Amino acid sequence: MDLGLQGRTALVTGADSGIGLATVKLLLAEGATVVMSDIDQQALEAAATTLDAQEGRLHAFAADITSTSSVKALKEQVFDAVGEIDILVQGAGIHGPDGLFHEIDEEGWQQTLDVNLMGHVRVLQAFLSDLRSGGWGRLVFVSSEDAVQPYDDELPYCASKAAILSVARGLSRTYAKEGLLVNTVSPAFIATPMTDEMMDKLAKQRSISRDEAIQAFLEEERPFMELGRRGEPEEVAAVITFLCSDRASFVNGANYRVDSGAVATI
Ligand code: NAD
Prior knowledge:
Elements: E1 9-13, H1 18-29, E2 33-37, H2 41-49, E3 58-60, H3 68-82, E4 87-90, H4 106-116, H5 118-133, E5 137-142, H6 155-175, E6 180-187, H7 193-206, H8 210-221, H9 233-243, E7 255-258
Parallel strand pairs: 1-2, 1-4, 2-3, 4-5, 5-6, 6-7
The structure holds nicotinamide-adenine-dinucleotide.
């Protein structure tokens, strides 16, 4: 199936690892020009060197999405390099603090919301005019199963992901008639640095290996993940890339779960 991505230009945030990096790879393979962005220039450049792209089709600019000036600078760099973008994938995110509500202070809440909600708002404010200008645009946010199924020991994360679902649904009403389609992808327990860190913490607490921690987590915390394993970043990237494509021309305001059944409701 030709996704019709040749000639399109995409910006992917959170692009130096995990789901973001896998998405950059697929968008490149489908012929798009891609700008990858993440917080650390060195890590970003290291990730870019692992990718196979024809001259001029891959660009990498660091930006901290908690800083308005950094995002504005990113906008200028992107414009100078590739002009306006047609596709924005907002993959940047942090897990934030673990703990029950009474164990998490205001700073923990602020930091999480500043990246996972306000970071995405800042990036969209900078690039919305690009996405609206050509009569064809795609905006995909990476939310989480946690948005609709909150776990009581990671509420700032869950709340930030629920907020993104709400923002995306609202945006999908405003801009669809202009050709800008807005959707979300909600993964569960994907093998990325984010969940590696969670599993290493659990392994340390219980004096077990990372693999044993993954199995324990699946059995105790994610019983509805019917495939009984962590997902791969490429399995999420495939859905994101489809939503970025011409083939998703009648998909708007949707939330695609990529979770092997993790969410317990219909
Ligand atoms: P990841 O840690 O590999 O990717 C997140 C990226 O966001 C990192 O590269 C990080 O540097 C970047 N980032 C963090 N703060 C930033 C900032 N201030 N400015 C710019 N970039 C920043 O983990 P991932 O699992 O690939 O996460 C990608 C997205 O998927 C996140 O939004 C995450 O919440 C979401 N998600 C992941 C899972 C999972 O199981 N891994 C499940 C559901 C949702």
